[in-house]
Amino acid sequence: MYADLKMLLDGEWSEGTGDRRVAVLNPANEQSLGDLPLAERDDLDRALAAMRAAQPKWAATAPGARARILRAAAEIMRARAGEIAHQMTLEEGKILAEAKAETIAGIEILNWYAEEGRRAYGRIVQGANPNVRQMVLKQPVGPVAAFTPWNFPVVTPARKIGGALAAGCTLLIKPSEETPAGALAIARALQEAGLPRGVLNVVFGVPAEISEYVIASDTIRKISFTGSIPVGKHLARLAADGMKRATMELGGHGPVIVFDDVDAEKAAALSVAGKYRNAGQVCISPTRFFVHDGIYRRFLETFTERAAALKVGDGLDEASQMGPLANDRRMEAIDALVRDAVERGAELKTGGARIGNRGYFYAPTVLAEVPEDARIMNEEPFGPVAPIVRFKEFDEVVERANRLPFGLAGYAFTNSVETATRIGNALETGLVGINHFTISTPETPFGGMKESGYGSEGGLEGLDAYLATRFVTQAPAP
Question: Phi/psi at 137 (nearest 5 deg)?
Fold first, then answer.
């Protein structure tokens, strides 16, 4: 039940012109799911040429016609949702319930952009001279190159594909080579829904080779990247060489501030669910827990008890509540962060070790009394580790929450409207959740501040990212 691993080039499924392949592994058992073809420059040239040729006609296609294709593709995916979710769990590891929820979210993103693409309005601006017409026009920016990571194989490609296609842009997307099935499922659904050839191209390859070659092409007018801050900065420099527009959704280190006017046990229960979703491999994951001294002990005890009780196992096992990490790199990184924190004086309350010797399973981990200079308080963990520390005063915790260069997501728990307003204003993050962790929906903007990137995906802002604004003024003939 795994995907047919091919690339989509100019409307045709292809294994490429070269013989390079990479194995896609199941992180639950480290076995190969299949071999993925990697693109050579001839394959990239074919994709770029296809985009260039398809762009004028796709841009001229009525928004309603583009919407019908997106909606039809969404319904094709809905009929295959169980299969798509199964493939996601096989290649990425997250439990099947989370994979199903992500698949439905990806479908709703396509539906959202189908409708929002019909509302890419310009406007008439009344000027001083009534005989002169002033028009603001919204037009497709042109061919786009998109790059997506491994942790959300359906939702992240759906955001970029949906936004670009709804706006009238052609697209070349390079999903992660570790989790290719989700983007391929979207591409197949769009092809079956009647998407013209060349509008969407899906390639895989050595990331640096692909990005450096594609972004330098005169064909590309915009790039969209989701991934790490160092890679994002590198791609932003490449885009700057051609003055190409860019959307950068980069990493974070989400603070969670728990004030003493809430039920500590209920806040801890919600926090455990948010923290260990996808084994903590989420860019907006809650990662630094600041708990008021008055409820710190109760919160810590409940959090630890619930984290220790989570059943970790193969995501296809319905009893599993958390799956494996996606790759061996995360195992090594998480273990190093935990060891560093303990060496610096943190208390290991539960977890802190690999589970078994097959698959990338790591125990849900809780660290208490973690010093500020520990690596985990300064580096995005991207794994199932929760450092929990105390605070006493509002201004103190705001300073600690904002001290890092990251600014993607932040959270707070409080029963006070005044405190909720103050902390919502004070957190230097692009996304803020008060009393819950649901901060990503199709109809709302998703993006960060500071080194967590710029630009937004989702909502009307996500569509506007793929539109160029032009001003046309027209006077009577002389």
Answer: -115, 145
Alpha helices in 242-286 (DSSP H): 264-275
Q: Return the structure tokens found at 345.
A: 């004086």
User: Can you tell me the mean pLDDT for 412-435?
Assistant: 98
Q: What is the dihedral of CA 128, 130, 132, 138, to 10 degrees?
A: 80
In tens, the pLDDT along 250-293 reads 999 999 999 999 999 999 999 999 999 999 999 999 999 999 99
Report the alpha-carbon distance of residue 209 to residue 440 in Å, rounded: 31
Strand 409-413 vs strand 431-434: parallel, antiparallel, or unpaired? Answer: parallel
249 belongs to the catalytic site: yes
Q: Report pTM.
A: 0.96
Give the span between the Cα atoms of 85 and 259, in whole angstroms.
37
Q: What is the pLDDT of residue 284?
A: 97
Residues 317 and 450: their CA atoms lie apart, in Å, by 40
Structural domains of the chain in order of their starting residue, each with its CATH number: 7-250+450-473 (3.40.605.10), 254-434 (3.40.309.10)
Marked catalytic residue, from 283, 428, 451, 457: 283
Token couple for 473? 């003024």
Tell me the two tokens of residue 312.
């970790």
Decide if 204 contacts 36 (C-beta within 8 A): yes
451 is catalytic: no
Tokens of 162: 């949906």
Q: What is the pLDDT of residue 252?
A: 97
- CB distance 93 to 326 below 8 Å: yes
Half-sphere exposure of 425 (CA within 13 A, CB side): 7
State yes or no: pLDDT of 1 exceeds 90: no
As given in the structure block, the two tokens for residue 372 are 């500020």
Element (DSSP H or E) covering residue 181 = helix 181-192
CB-based burial, 367-403: b 16+ in 10 Å, e otherwise: bbebeeebebbebbbbbbbbbbbbbeeeeebbebbbe
Tokens found for residue 429: 């993050």
Q: Order of strands across the sheet with 133-140?
A: 123-125, 133-140, 467-474
pLDDT tens by residue, 355-369: 999 999 999 999 999
- Please choose, from the candidates 462, 420, 464, 465, the residue with its C-alpha nearest in 3D space to the C-alpha of residue 441: 462
Instruction: Tell me the C-alpha distance between 192 and 186, whole Å.
Output: 10
Residue 456 CA, chain-centre distance (Å), reads: 11
CA distance 194 to 54: 14
pLDDT category at 177 given cuts 50, 70, 90 is very high
In angstroms, the CA 401 to CA 404 distance is 7
Among residues 92, 108, 116, 249, the one annotated as catalytic is 249
Q: Write down the residue that tokens 């229960």 correspond to.
A: 269
Q: From CA 147, how far away is CA 126, in angstroms rounded?
A: 41
Q: Which residue has the tokens 């798509």?
A: 84
